[in-house]
Amino acid sequence: MGMQNDTxxxxxxxxxxxxDEVTVRWPNAQLTTQTWRGLAARKFYRLTQGDPAAAIAxx
Length: 59
Fold this sequence. Notes:
Blueprint: E1 18-25, E2 33-40, E3 44-46, E4 55-58
């Protein structure tokens, strides 16, 4: 039987209307980091390594 890890990470922001900054350290050999800024709260974002835009996955 196949297994898959859930890649969704949920952060509680309380009453904050926006996310100042999110930094991801990617699990690659170089341990690359990437930062996104100024994201709206109450959204699901798809963060893709190497892509400077944070795509809204769900409203």
